[in-house]
């Protein structure tokens, strides 16, 4: 199964939606902690749901169980934390939430994890994809840039 990831920053709407459509994404799984911010532009939750459906018949699903907590994110973003500490805390959170046991792998086939970070290197969407790959196996992760 292919599992995609994408961030919306540093992308215009044409590039963002083009990447999803050209890769055959059938469902966007929003793993952001804050998906209603005006700063999200075209990726604001309700607008994004509409655009995905209208432009490509793509489903939109919020998955807050795959978002970091405000404390973990704040320690990294606002308090100048380092990535290694964030990564350990977030991986522990995924284990604590037992996400691989509570989510249906079928919902992840040809789906795309959405967050705001441009690249996957320092984004929790990559950590989610890798966690599910380890737990479920049979997942090919593709980061859309």
Explain what this protein looks like in three dimensions.
The protein has 145 residues and is α/β, with parallel strands linked by helices. It contains six helices and five strands. Helix 4 packs across helix 6 (124-136). It starts with a strand and ends with a strand. The model has no long low-confidence stretch (mean pLDDT 95). InterPro entries: DUF488. It comes from Thiorhodococcus minor.
List its salient traits.
145 residues; alpha/beta; five-stranded parallel beta sheet; 6 helices
How would you summarize the topology of this molecule?
Layout: E1 2-7, H1 13-22, E2 27-30, H2 45-56, E3 59-62, H3 70-77, H4 83-97, H5 99-102, E4 111-115, H6 124-136, E5 140-144
Parallel strand pairs: 1-4, 1-5, 2-3, 2-4
Strand order within the widest beta sheet: 3-2-4-1-5
Please tell me how large the radius of gyration is: 14 Å
- The number of distinct helices, counting runs of at least 4 residues, comes to 6
Number of domains: 1
Protein name: DUF488 domain-containing protein
Pfam families: DUF488 (PF04343)
Organism: Thiorhodococcus minor
Summarize the structure.
The chain is α/β, with parallel strands linked by helices and 145 residues long. The chain has one domain (2-144). The protein contains six helices and five strands; from the N terminus they run βαβαβαααβαβ.
């Amino acid at each position: 199964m292919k599992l995609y990831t994408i961030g919306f920053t540093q992308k215009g709407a044409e590039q963002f939606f083009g990447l999803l459509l050209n890769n055959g994404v059938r469902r966007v799984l929003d793993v952001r902690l804050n998906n209603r911010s005006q700063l999200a532009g075209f990726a604001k939750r309700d607008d994004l749901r509409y655009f995905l459906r209208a432009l490509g018949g793509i489903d939109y699903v919020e998955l807050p169980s795959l978002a970091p907590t405000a404390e973990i994110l704040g320690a990294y973003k606002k308090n100048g934390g380092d990535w290694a500490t964030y990564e350990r805390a977030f991986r522990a959170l995924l284990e604590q939430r037992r996400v691989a046991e509570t989510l249906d792998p079928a919902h992840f086939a040809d789906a795309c994890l959405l967050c705001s970070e441009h690249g996957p290197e320092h984004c929790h969407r990559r950590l989610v994809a890798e966690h599910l790959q380890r737990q479920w196996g049979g997942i090919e992760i593709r980061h859309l840039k």
